[in-house]
Amino acid sequence: EVQLVESGGGLVQPGGSLRLSCAASGFTLSGHTMNWVRQAPGKGLEWVSSISSSSDTIYYADSVRGRFTISRDNAKNSLYLQMNSLRDEDTAVYYCARGYMDFVYWGQGTLVTVSS
Amino acid sequence: IVMTQTPLSSPVTLGQPASISCRSSQSLVNSDGNTYLSWLQQRPGQPPRLLIYQISNRFSGVPDRFSGSGAGTDFTLKISRVEAEDVGVYYCMQATQFRHGPTFGQGTKVEIK
């Protein structure tokens, strides 16, 4: 069974940093593009970043470029999102999702709250 | 690419059909000839779940009361007979211009009358 489990969320002050992790099981991470998508409280879905299977292609949304860094460790079957210079508007549930063009599997999400 | 869904709210009687429209600001036909338009369901308190990919292909385990159609810039998700478990928010998503980032519609809330 394919499972994606996010962790690392929490409360952080504006300007602070957090590192999110997504642990994959039930499939081999190295064969798939992976993504982060976020959802602010009561709002819709917003794509954040994507990374190809071998990490040679990476994309970011304009809203996070220069502040967030996506990475992966295929040997550990894990995906990461390093978030720096956090702002109030980064408050959201962050989901990892598997897929290129079609986001086939989604994790349960981890909540990031940016507040003083 | 901007995705626009209508309606934003759809009260439906159990057993009756429901239909959601999604329009893109430009054609979603990819250079490979495929159209990367998918539909996601998000039940209350749950993560999104893939229902339909590439316009009309049902994902594994999705009931056949869900169907997708359309082409170019206009797409539709239909539920032939709404059941209680179908309550939630439905999003269309395009990934045709993946390098510029997938984009989502605003979401359509399906609720029971």
Count of alpha and pi helical runs of chain B: 0
Radius of gyration of chain B: 13 Å
| Largest sheet report of chain A | 7 strands, mixed
Oligomer description? heterodimer
Strand content of chain A: over 45%
Tell me the helix content of chain B: under 10%
Mean pLDDT reading of chain A: 97
Mean pLDDT of chain B: 96
Listing every helix as H and every strand as E from the N terminus to the C terminus, the arrangement of chain B reads EEEEEEEEEEE
CA distance, first residue to last residue of chain B: 33 Å
Secondary structure topology:
The complex is a heterodimer of chains A (116) and B (113).
Chain A: E1 3-7, E2 10-12, E3 18-25, E4 34-39, E5 45-51, E6 58-60, E7 68-73, E8 78-83, E9 92-98, E10 105-106, E11 110-114
Parallel strand pairs in A: 2-11
Antiparallel strand pairs in A: 1-3, 3-8, 4-5, 4-9, 5-6, 7-8, 9-10, 9-11
Chain B: E1 3-6, E2 9-12, E3 18-24, E4 37-42, E5 49-53, E6 57-58, E7 66-71, E8 74-79, E9 88-94, E10 103-104, E11 108-112
Parallel strand pairs in B: 2-11
Antiparallel strand pairs in B: 1-3, 3-8, 4-5, 4-9, 5-6, 7-8, 9-10, 9-11
